[in-house]
Amino acid sequence: MRRKKIKQTRKEIIDKVAKKFIEALKTQKGDWKKSKIWKSLESGLPINANTRKSYNGFNIINLLLDREIHNYDNNEWGTFKMWNDMGYRLKKNEKCSYVFFNKPFEVEDPTKLDEFGNPKKKKIFYLKPYAVFNANQVEGYEVKKVKAPNKAKALKNVDKYVENTGADISYGGDRAYYSPSFDKIQMPSKESFLGTEEYYGVLLHELVHWTGHENRCKRDFSGFFGSEAYAIEELVAETGSAILCSILGISQTVREDHLKYVNSWIKNLENKPEQVIKAINKSTKAIEHLDSLQTTEEKKEVA
């Protein structure tokens, strides 16, 4: 008699995935420069093998992490049904990874009543997990070669990309930061950086911070150094910068001063795994906002 497989609950899946991510960062001891997760971004974002569209939010980091853990040499993913509909079968005993999507549903809001005294409906969102498999786990699927980004062209694209946002950026001094009160980015001169990759990685980090202003994505800047709010915002900016560096064709370099407090926000978020996922999803919204500020031509180049 076959033993019935016990289905994992949504919370169990979220806890498991977030714990994997946190443990991976602990293993790196905060040194993201050595992490294969960021280096693997140079070969492109994880994509749906059928639609060819890239995943977003926490899904990017989670699938890159699973790719590293299992030594997959491909960025293509899909559900069991999708691979089956495409005419392929999974290899035996393959384990799934998970992607998460915000699913809306309506609930009653007891604080707001209609004219008859009945609770009004309100829409809320929750993370719904879906099981996916990498192309390396599929029988007979021809793994497509990933084209390396053209870095020489990317530098020109990045300058134009940043310019199109209209962000107020000043150069000078030895610090890089975004000031929410003045809505301004301060950057050291390009010549003061060790290389172009480091320069653009820092610039895009601050540009993602810039999207959090109340007139844009309205993120929380109230946190002090070491607090949960501060940690979440740094996670948003760092992952957003890494993803943008991949999209625009630049390999990621992480600043030394960021590495010093990585462990602090890991500690703050360790008991709130869903917050880890939501924080990284915010980086995708930041990128979507930056993309919306681009001209039609630039949007075609980034896509």
Question: In words, what does this structure look like?
Answer:
This protein has 303 residues and is an alpha/beta fold. 43% of the residues lie in helices and 17% in strands. It has helices at 10-27, 36-40, 58-70, 80-85, 151-165, 196-210, 228-247, 256-259, 262-269, 273-292, 296-302, and strands spanning 47-48, 76-78, 89-90, 97-113, 119-134, 138-139, 169-171, 177-179, 184-187. Helix 1 packs across helix 10 and helix 7 packs across helix 10 (273-292). It starts with 9 loop residues before the first helix and ends with a helix. The relative contact order is 0.14.
Alpha-carbon distance between the two ends: 51 Å
Radius of gyration over alpha carbons? 21 Å
Which sheet architecture does the biggest sheet show? 4 strands, mixed
**Count of helix runs:** 11
On the 0-100 scale, what is the average pLDDT? Answer: 78
Strand content: 15-25%
Helix content: 40-55%
General form: globular
Instruction: Classify the secondary structure makeup into a structural class.
Output: alpha/beta
Low-pLDDT ranges: 29-34, 148-154, 254-261
| Element-by-element helix/strand order | HHEHEHEEEEHEEEHHHHHH
Number of DSSP E strands:
9
Strand order across the largest sheet: 1-2-5-4
